[in-house]
Structure formats: structure tokens, C-alpha cells
Amino acid sequence: MRSVRARAALGATVVVALALIGAGIAVLLVLRANLTGQAGLQAEVVAREVAGQLALDVPYDRLEMRDEEDHPVQVVDEDGRVVAVSKDLEAISGTGTDRVSPVPSAAPGRGSGSDDGDDGDDDLADDDGAAPARGEVDPGEPDFTNGTATVDGESADYRFASVRATTSRGVTLTVHAGAPLAAEQEAVGTVRGAMLIGLPVLLLVVAGVTWLVTRRALRPVEGIRREMAAITASEDLSRRVPEPASRDEIARLARTTNETLTALEASVDRQRRFVADASHELRSPIASLRTQLEVGAAHPELLDVPGAVADTVRLQALAADLLLLARLDAGERPGRSTLDLGALVREEVSQRVGDRIPVTVSVPDSGDFEVTGSRGQLARVIGNLLDNAERHARDTVTVSVRAAERGDVLVEVTDDGAGVPADERERIFERFVRLDDARTRDDGGAGLGLAIARDVAVRHGGGLTADGAPEGGARFTLRLPAAG
């Protein structure tokens, strides 16, 4: 099944079906046990009544048995011979013997079965006039069995209770009395029939309700899918999927999808601007270099070799910046080597012999400034910050290294130039952004140095910020986590 609605409806139906079947079986078992127990109790009452009469030595042919049609009774002696049965009992099973015809046996009381013609009351007295000895009924739990009996031509199922009684002469008799199971069978059958009819109907209702509820719940998902398909077909990343008013998982999915589309749109726009700005930046040195080479080819004496070299160097630096940005955008991870940031700053400053303004370095000798990362990329960050300070400083450029309170290492580059306006201190880290529009491209950079510096700092787990310097110029602060 490819439909979520179908799978949900089927799953809910199966779960409900299993639960109902289990509950139905339990109900039937409990109902049957209760009704069978009630029938067994009725049979035990009848059996104990007959056993009580036998314990009093009542003759077999004078036993009083109530409701003989509903409670068949069979009495057997120790040898398994049937000595008494209830009226109209034609067949029986489940009591140990299927005989229903009494056979001659010793009478339970003296005088029973004699030919003197005395009545039962006289037989109950001894020769000396004293009362006869009494027998007893087994007080223990009776034995219960299920069987059938035919009474007056009608067969039915019964619950039999077996009770033992001992006469005054020591004769042990077993009374089997039955109670009909028709009520139990009828009740169980009625409940079973109701379940067999109601279960399919209930399952159909569950399946239908689950289908409708799932369809309603997944309707926003279908709207999101259609909108995403339209966005894919039109390539219009400015469109957004509809967000339902609910606060459930689907609403969060829609919001997350729109956030992803927003980030994707910004990424594509940034990429387009990057390509356009890169093409524009590359066009200027290439055009200048081509013009100089064409003039040199036509008039060798007019060839400006230093200018051509400068344009080539500038073109090479711009290509290197673009390549580094491409690697950073591709997710290239920095190295994991440990290096001393103070030593790296001293090394970078020592190599800047042609700077317009000498750089003042302030690095404590006793400090621990070890960080983890790429030596080449961090050197590039420090170089870009110094280049930016050299372009804007009037008289002084200072770089210092110190440890922060949270265990970070800070590198601060300050100048005494015009500074950066407060509302522009974040925009200067965007690519191809230059605040001095009057500055020629030959004098300034392409606007990539600070963007590269911040990207490298962020990928090293740190950051780069700009604010005002105490001397009135700009101060750039590079923060990197200390090693370990």
C-alpha cells in the first residue's frame, strides 16, 4: 500500500480487531464460567438433598427428587451398580456409567426391601424402640463433570455434581445430580452471535473513521506537496507552502519547509550575486591587462610592464580569494593542527616589509595562545585584517594578542583611520561590499578580505567583529577557542 491513509486505516482496523477479538473471547469465557458455575451449584444442591436422604436411610424407592425433568439423578453404590434413578430418565452420560435401570442391592435402612409389609416408619426403629444410627454426607467439595441426559424423550447437556453419602450400615453411595446447561449455551450463543454481527460492522466504522480522519489530517501535506512540485517546476524560490493554523507536526513541517525555502532562496541569490560580482571584479583587471598587452604588441616602446605585472598580481589574488570562498562554501573543514597564535602574528607582521605604515605588535611573552585549526587559513585572516587596516589608517596600525576570560584567544587589529559607522559594522563582512565608493579599484580590494576572514573564523569555532577603537579608528577582534 502506497497510501498513508490506507495503511493507517488498515493498521487501526487490525489493532481494533485484535483487541475486540481478545475482549470477546475473555467475555465469553467469563460468561461461560459463571453460568456453568451456577449450574454446578444447582446440581450440588440437588445432589446433597438426595445424599442427605440416603444418609438417613430413606429407601431407594422413596427418595424425593425435585424437578426431576430439569435435574436428573443417578445413584450408584460402591460396586458401580445403579441403585436409584430419577423418574423418566432414559439415558445418561458423563457420570461414570450410562445405566439407568436400578439393580437389586442392599437397602440403605433395615427393613427396606423386606417382605413383611411394614411401612417405612416402623422400619426406622430398632427392636428395642430406640432410634437408628445416622449415616453421613461427604462434606468435601463435590466432583463436577459435563454430560448429557435424556429425560422423557428429550436430550440435553447437563452439569453433573457427584456427592458421596454413607448410610448407617456403612454402605457408601454416590449421587450424581445434573443441572441443565441450556441457559449457559443460550447466553453464550447469543453473545457470540452479537459479536459476530457487531464486530464486522464496528471494524467497518473504525476503518471508515480512520480513513476520513487521516485524510483530513493529511490534507495540508498534500497542499505542501503540490506547492513544492509547483516550485520545482517553476524554479520560483520566492513562493512558500501554505502553513496550517494548527500547532501540530504538519504545521511545524510547513514552517520548516518555508524556512528551508527562505535559506535556499538566500543561498541562490547570494550565489548569483557572487557570480555577478566576481565577473565584474575579474573583468576590470583582465580588460586592463589586455589593453596593455595589445598596446605593447603594436608599440613595444609603450608597454607598461609594471602595470601589467600589477594587474596580473591583482588578478591572481582575486582568483585565490574566489577559490578560497568556493572551498569554504563547499564545507571544507579546517585542519586540526595546534599552533601558537602569538607566534603566527609575529611571523605575519615580520613578512610585511613594504607596508605604508609600520605595524606595532603587542604579544605577551608569558601567554599561552595555542589554538587548533589551519595555519594557512588563519594566516590569511590576519593578513586580510592588516591589509584592511593599512588601507584606512592615517599614522598607526596596532595588532595585539591576549587571552580572554572564557578561555578564548583574542587578536585585535586597530587603526587610527576614519572608523566604521555603527550601522555598517555588519554589512562590511558581506562579499564584495566596500564602503568607500570613491576609492578606485586599483587602490582598494575587491571587498572579499573581511568576508573571507569572518567565514574562516566561524569555521574555526570563533568569530570576527568590528567596533570603534579608542584612538578613534576601527578595531577588528578575532576570537578563537583555545586548544584543548
Question: What's the helical proportion of residues?
Answer: 40-55%
Structural class: alpha+beta
The main sheet comes to:
7 strands, antiparallel
Domain count, please report it: 3
Radius of gyration over all CA atoms, rounded: 53 Å
The residue-averaged pLDDT reads 84
Number of strands: 14
In terms of DSSP E residues, the strand content is 15-25%
Order of helices and strands, N to C? HEEEHEEEEHHHEHEEHEEHEE
Low-pLDDT regions: 110-133, 437-442
End-to-end gap: 53 Å
Shape: rod-shaped
What's the tally of helices? 8
Can you tell me about this structure?
The chain has 484 residues and is of the alpha+beta class. It has 3 domains: 4-187; 237-332, Signal transduction histidine kinase, dimerisation/phosphotransfer (DHp) domain (Helix Hairpins); 335-481, 2-Layer Sandwich (Heat Shock Protein 90), CATH 3.30.565.10. Helices cover 46% and strands 18% of the residues. The protein contains 8 helices and 14 strands. It has helices at 4-55, 120-123, 182-234, 249-298, 305-329, 341-350, 375-392, 449-459; strands spanning 73-76, 82-85, 89-93, 136-137, 143-151, 154-166, 172-180, 337-340, 359-362, 370-373, 397-403, 408-415, 463-468, 474-481. Strands 1, 2, 3, 4, 5, 6 and 7 form a 7-stranded antiparallel beta sheet that branches. Strands 9-11-12-14-13 form a 5-stranded mixed beta sheet, with helices on one face. The chain has a two-stranded antiparallel ribbon with strand order 8-10. The longest helix is centred in the middle third of the chain and has 53 residues, at 182-234. The radius of gyration is 53 Å and the shape is rod-shaped.
